[in-house]
Amino acid sequence: VLTVIEGGRVIDPAHGRDETADLWIEHGRIAAPQPHRAPDARHDATGCVVLAGGIDIHSHIAGANVNTARLLLPELQDSPDADAVPVPQTIGRLYAAMGFTTVVEPAISPHVAVQAHQELSDIPVLDTGILAVLGNEDFLIRLLSRGESADAVADYAGRTLAGAGALGIKVINPGAAAAFKDNVRQFGLDDAVPGTDVTSRAIVTALQRARDALGLPHPVHLHCSNLGIPGNVETALATMDSCGGLPLHLAHVQFYAYGTESDLGFSSAAARLAAALNAAPAHVTADVGQVMFGQTVTVSSDVLRQFSARRSGHPRRWSILDGDGNGGGIVPYRYRRRSFHNAVQWAAGLELFLLTSEPSRLFFTTDHPNGAPFTAYPDLLALLMSRELRAQWMQTLPKAALAATTLPGIAREYSWAEIATMTRAAPARLLGLADRGHLAPGAVADVAIYRPQADMAACFRNTVLTLKDGEPASRDGALLRATPGRRLRARADFDRAIEPQLAAFYGDIYGVAHTAFDVPEHLLDGAA
Amino acid sequence: MTAEATVDGSRVPLARAIAAAAALLGRAERPAIAGLHTDAAGIAAALRLARRLGAAIDHADSAACLRDIDAMRTGGWIVATPLQVRARADLLLLAGTDLPPGLDGPPTLVGGTRTVLRMAADAETVGALRARLAGRRTGALPASIAPLADALPKARYGAVIWDSATADALDIAMLCGLIDDLNAATRYVGLPLEPAGAACAMQVSAALTGLPLPLHFQHDLPRHDPDAAAAADAVLWIGAPPPGEVAVALLPPGATAHAAVCIGMGEPGRDHDTVLFDPALGALTARSATHPSAAPRCADLLRRLEAALC
What is the ipTM score, two decimals? Predict the structure, then answer.
């Protein structure tokens, strides 16, 4: 099938392109212009902006923790807040409506990867992948505490990623979940897992080296220690400083952009964090984890943090799991405009977006659903593109909160090209997915057609048309395709000599086969 | 092997049995899918069929899992995987249940010894224990309470184990409260023992609909309804044995039923590859067929049945 999208403004920052042009598609891929052939399908994009399909690098859309959140909050399903706990069918429909076609679920413990992949297979349209959470497993802590070689750590990581069908390595408050099982309640970068000399810092470094040795495209994707705590910008800065020698992605840094400078002992330190990110090596990247106001639920494998926060939820419910490795915790939460703390959080996220100079190093996330459901993206994009809109929002927020931030003085407005870089070109590069995030011939024909309008949130909420693999997937918000996308995963070589070690450890310690958690190929159907 | 299929007791080709089942369910006013003794794929297919039929759907053992979910929602809970309990727990408190397999030795990861204590799971006893632990004044306590109150806080990583099929929701909530109390100073976790099939069904139901079983689909929308299947006029039963007469039964090898339509199906993990909940892992797990055969999968039968609906 030969398809042409006619007369749109084609913006492809990966190739420095911003022009009115026709975009040709054949065999599910972007094709060179074919003006002498009659297309089988035409889509009029006059007056519209044509981008590659959006790529979300960090959105909790599947797995046991997400499912626990559903079971904890069944009443949300039939409410205006349903987007906090969407089911797979809704996830695919709403992402496709926004022009997103690739989404990474960033926190799957290898022991529950089977369940996560099952759920991902039920999501229409989207290509998906998981990051496997490493850094708190009993086996890894033992390897590190015994001073086993870097090769052994890399082989373990490679074996575990292969078993889990994962795209990369996620590290969440490394060492803290293990320490919590030993009754530790606070755990920082230089604290060691009890009974060992393995520090949080050492775990990150070991996994960065493992990622390097395995040749994984995606850097270690790190959820630092001390999330959400006033003054924790020091943790983020120290982490960047000590681990920034190798590629490193810092997740949802808004939750680490906090100082203590106000009467309430809480302030935004986003300006310091953005300055540090600007000055850091280019291989240090971050995503924001923007807070937006409304009901949501926090779903996190940072079990220590969730345990500490378990009584601060709204509604007041919680569930905590000591898992094999990280485990997790579910705590519902409502971000309120009238809350000093929540308003500072909202502003800190926007400061990070607006003060980080390179949109290629700062990624667009709300850490769905932790900062806000992903359905808040249209409002957030509109805020980034309009100083005037931000001023309107700020009028509704506590003045004292805004005074604890630098947001009111920031004039920057994102351009379409910067939006396209942040949500398309850069995430494809960060994930090592050369076939997407751009519109050059050969790229996967995932295309989003937006109609700019006065209400830019409306523009971003429903594309005129989203194409997946060259086929219509969503039009004006209506889902047109029921089939799921492909599964994205990394392929890394490792030494199978690690298998007998794992078999012995799992047999002795857990009384089960280590292979019991492996994801079979048939659950990864269509894996790229 | 071809599928065993009967209509009104006579052997028929599978396609005819499917058509007869679709006719019975399609013309029912209040159809229900019950039993649900199948794997994750079968449960997902049953949920899709229930949506299509506007039917009620439930798992035979869902009540046990619902009690746990109720307790989790009511007061919060801290639970652990069975693997972590085996690896770390130096104290097991068996609340109205027996020692599960695999936990009889010392803690495998941390070493030392493992103490096993027992108590009744009823809310009154647990409440008395919590009061004693909190130093509150209590009336006369059962003699068993004082030694428990003495021993429990001394554990480094204690696990409270209950049988979700026999404890009621209030008992479980009270046990979760006890665990939370003990976590103020040391580490404690809960380990609910749930029926594996229902645990799998709850996970699949939550993932596909956002809600736990039992459900009732009306106008394509699922509603959680504890009495969903009570007034059914045509039941599709999955797994053996149905408690009484049903309209349609999908049966594992060797099983029989009082049903207008009976269709044989393979055993997940034996006849075909499967994903199911393994209580020993505390997780869904994928298994390859041990004796691959052509016996139909439950999920495939349900899809064919759905396709045969007018």
Answer: 0.97
